[in-house]
Structure formats: structure tokens, C-alpha cells
Q: What sequence folds into this?
């Protein structure tokens, strides 16, 4: 028999509990068996769909795509946003990383290759901006981060990471630097200064 209940903890929070009662016979003697468990509500498919939709929306707003590669099964997974940002057709590309690599500026491609090899060995790799030319000819800058998951023996079993479109952010940073340089030059020419 199962009884669902809740109890108030010392800190004032409510905790859902499941109390199961049964009988057990040990050496011919009947015994009562009681289990008291944390009741974890089952996630419904609708809850999973809401969570997935929220994640997709968050990635779209942040211009952030994620990816993973199961090395043992040689299976690549990319988020919908990553396909969208890179203008890659999911149905047409069975190996999206190769298509992405071909889009990378030649000066950044060696870093990506070296970083992928280092991550595959389980080494840490510093995040970096990568210049990309999209299928429609648009130039974009993506902030690339990646890492590895290792099993209990230390063997790398999965690579995963993110790409975030930072094109507008980098353009704004460059414009701010130019403005600051112009301001300093104007002060120098006018022989004035400022302090805080």
C-alpha cells in the first residue's frame, strides 16, 4: 500500500513523501516493511515539451547554439539554434562539423583543428572567437567553447560545447575603442585633460 503525504522540514519548507507499507516473512515470522521515500513527481511529456521550448527560446534570444559528439557511437547532435545560426540544413548535412569547419576563416581553422584535437584528448581549451563566412556570404564572429566528458577510467567519451554569435558585441566594442581613441586625441590636440 502506498500513501502520499507531505511534511514540513525544520527550515519551514514542505517536502513530498511517499510511504509504502508491505509485509515480509523472515524465518516464518511475519514482519511489517515500511519505506519512507522522497516523492519525486513524475515529469509529464507536456512538462518536457515546455522545458524544451523554453530552452530553444533562450538559445534563440542569446544567439547561442550547443552541440555534442558521442565519440563511441560517432553521433553528432546540434541544437536547432546552431543549425539556424550557421545556415546549415539539418536534412542535407549528415556531418555538420565538416560543413562548419569549411565556413571558418582560414586563419582561425588551425586553432579549431588544434582545439578539437586537444579536447578529444581531454585537455582544457581556452574559449576563442572564430570568424565564419555563412552560406549567404555574411561574415559573423562566433565565440567558441568546448569541453570533454570522460568515463570512470578517464577515457574521453563525449565532446560538447557552444557557439555564440557575438558579431554585434565585437562591433560595438571596436566602435567604443575608436571613440575613446578619438576622445583622447581631441584632448591631446586641445592640450586639455580630465580626471576622475
A:
Amino acid at each position: 500500500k502506498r500513501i502520499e503525504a507531505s511534511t514540513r522540514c525544520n527550515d519551514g519548507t514542505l517536502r513530498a513523501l511517499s510511504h509504502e507499507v508491505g509485509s515480509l516473512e523472515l524465518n516464518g515470522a511475519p514482519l511489517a516493511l515500511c519505506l519512507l521515500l522522497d516523492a519525486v513527481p513524475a515529469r509529464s511529456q507536456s512538462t518536457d515539451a515546455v522545458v524544451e521550448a523554453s530552452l530553444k527560446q533562450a538559445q534563440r534570444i542569446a544567439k547561442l547554439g550547443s552541440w555534442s559528439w558521442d565519440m563511441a557511437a560517432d553521433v553528432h547532435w546540434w541544437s536547432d539554434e546552431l543549425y539556424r545560426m550557421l545556415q546549415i540544413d539539418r536534412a542535407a548535412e549528415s556531418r555538420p562539423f565538416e560543413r562548419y569547419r569549411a565556413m571558418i576563416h582560414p586563419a582561425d581553422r588551425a586553432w579549431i583543428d588544434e582545439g578539437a584535437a586537444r579536447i578529444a584528448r581531454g585537455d582544457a581549451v581556452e574559449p576563442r572567437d572564430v570568424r565564419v563566412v555563412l552560406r549567404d556570404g555574411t561574415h559573423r564572429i562566433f565565440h567558441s567553447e568546448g569541453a570533454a566528458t570522460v568515463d570512470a577510467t578517464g577515457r574521453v567519451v563525449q565532446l560538447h560545447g557552444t557557439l555564440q554569435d557575438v558579431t554585434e558585441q565585437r562591433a560595438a566594442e571596436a566602435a567604443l575603442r575608436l571613440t575613446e581613441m578619438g576622445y583622447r586625441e581631441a584632448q591631446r590636440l586641445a592640450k586639455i585633460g580630465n580626471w576622475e
Observations:
- The two ends are 73 Å apart (CA to CA).
- The chain has a mean pLDDT of 85.
